[in-house]
Each structure stands twice: as C-alpha cells, then as structure tokens.
Amino acid sequence: MKAFLLAAGLGSRLRPITNEIPKCLVPINGKPLLDYWFRLFQKYGIDEILINLHYLPDKVLTFLESVSYPFEIKAVYEEQLLGSAGTVLTNKAWVENEDDFFVIYADNLSNVNLNQILSFHLKHKPVLTMGLFQTTRPEECGIATIDREQTIIGFEEKPESPRSNLANAGIYLVRSNLFDFLPQRIPLDFGFDVFPRLIGKMKGFLIRDYLLDIGTLENYRRAQRDIQQINFPGGDK
Q1: Which of 12, 17, 127, 208 has a CA that sits 20 to 30 A from residue 201's CA?
Q2: Can you identify the CATH homologous superfamily of domain 2-226?
Q3: Residue 150 confidence (pLDDT) above 90
Q4: Kind of pairing, strands 27-28 and 31-32?
Q5: At residue 51, does pLDDT exceed 70?
Q6: Looking at residue 12, what is its pLDDT?
Q7: Contact, 82 vs 188, CB < 8 A?
C-alpha cells in the first residue's frame, strides 16, 4: 500500500526552532520526526511513500539520502504550496493502480495502529476514512460530527460553536474514487474544499493510540516528555 506523507508546512508556530530546520525534521529525543513516521510505515508494511517538500527542501533531501528504509520514498518539491488535497490531486498518476491509499500529515507524533484503520476502512468501504481524536480545544481543530454508524454527517474547520469534540487527526485512508470528488483547482484543501463534498460518504475512526500535533512550542516540549513513556516502533519507549 502507498502513503502520501504531507511535510511541506512552514512550521511558523515552532520558530525559532524552525528558522533553520523544517518542521518534519525537528528532533524528538534525538531523532527527526520523519524517522518516527518511517518506522511506523515499516512496521505496518507500507510499500511506497510520496513526501512533498517546500520549506528548506534540501535539508529534507539530505536526510533522505542519509537513511535507508525497506520501502521506496519519492520526494516531490512544491515551489508553491498546493494544499493538502492539491498534493494528492497533482500526483494522481502515482496512485492510479491503487484501490486504497493513506494520506497522512507529518505534523503529528503518533504510534497509531494503521492496521486497525485499514480493517475498519475495508469493512465499511467509504470514500474516505478519517482518523479522529478527542480534543479539549475543538475551536482550534477541524471538527467532525458522526452518527451511530460512524458516518461523518458534518465537518467544520475551527468552529466558533463546536458540535462535537472529535477532531481531524490528519490521517486518512481513501479509496481511488476520491478523485471523482476533487475540484480541479490548485491550491486545494481537504478541510475547506473536499470534506464538504464528502459529507455522508466518509467514516470516522476514533484513534485511541498516542497522537500529538507537535506544531507549537508547548506541544513540542510535551512530546519530548511523552516520548519517554510511550512505545514507538524502532525501540523508543
């Protein structure tokens, strides 16, 4: 199975750490964030990865050239940010022979069980399965509303009056017919441009594993503490 790993963000909220290093390479317990994702992909048998680059791409390429993983990594540079769904749309040919594929935001530190998401997705066969987590700050997240069958019946980005506390985890498993619902324009964002078209055609999977957006200095410091207590692929506890 293939996975898009979206890693082109500027990391503005992590400055000054990201003044000279892209967010996807910030060290957590001495290892770049990307390494945690790659070890997770290795554990769950991901065959190929496409990673998009924008900010300080040479540093990411240097890292990729210095490591070895048992899967193919394709790096694509975006001179202008294409948006989360724009990267997928632009690289449609890369997944033309895939029935299903992952789309994952590299902003998070997680030991999520990808096999559980896959089993859920194959059972229900939605256009898109969205990983969800329970948040105490729904006004800062993309928030999904689900029914008893876990069908997503509503989605709002950073709502002033949230209707649930189920937040978008930035981990999607999608069927190839996703492209039938993508507007043909760039930039293209999942939260604003795509999910409204998919209401009733998405399922929500509640992630109970560790997941933390490390995109703020507060959460970055928290990740350094949490990594000592949580089991991660590759030997980290």
Answers
A1: 208
A2: Spore Coat Polysaccharide Biosynthesis Protein SpsA; Chain A (3.90.550.10)
A3: yes
A4: antiparallel
A5: yes
A6: 82
A7: yes
